[in-house]
Amino acid sequence: MAWIALFLAGLLEIVWAFSMKASDGFTRPVPSLVTLVAMIASFVLLALAMRSLPLGTAYTIWTGIGAVGAFVVGIAVLGEPAAPARLAAAALIVSGIVLMKLAG
């Protein structure tokens, strides 16, 4: 159950990052509200996952899902560049997450 909570927390991190961008500096009410709700839900799920998962593992995977997910959304939805160095950096993040899981 902890892994499911952690995965959902990571997905919500992507949601709040995207909605924060859409909020235009918290000047648009609906995306601002989505940001706050998704942040709170993401932190609650992370805290639940940390009840049984090690801090380093849980936090690394949570931030990794959020970072890579936001990167993918930026490219796919916002038209951000997919430069080779950026793709390599994302691959390194994913590699670190996999290694962290295997080491745990």
From TrEMBL:
The chain crosses the membrane at residues 33-50, 57-79, 85-103. SUPFAM superfamilies: Multidrug resistance efflux transporter EmrE. It is found in: Cell membrane. One of its GO terms (cellular component) is plasma membrane. The keyword Transmembrane helix applies. GO terms for biological process: xenobiotic detoxification by transmembrane export across the plasma membrane. Pfam families: Multi_Drug_Res. InterPro entries: EmrE-like, Small_drug/metabolite_transptr, Small_multidrug_res. It is a multi-pass membrane protein. GO terms for molecular function: transmembrane transporter activity. Keywords: Cell membrane, Membrane, Transmembrane, Transmembrane helix, Transport. Belongs to the drug/metabolite transporter (DMT) superfamily. Small multidrug resistance (SMR) (TC 2.A.7.1) family. Gdx/SugE subfamily. This is Guanidinium exporter. It comes from Enterovirga rhinocerotis.
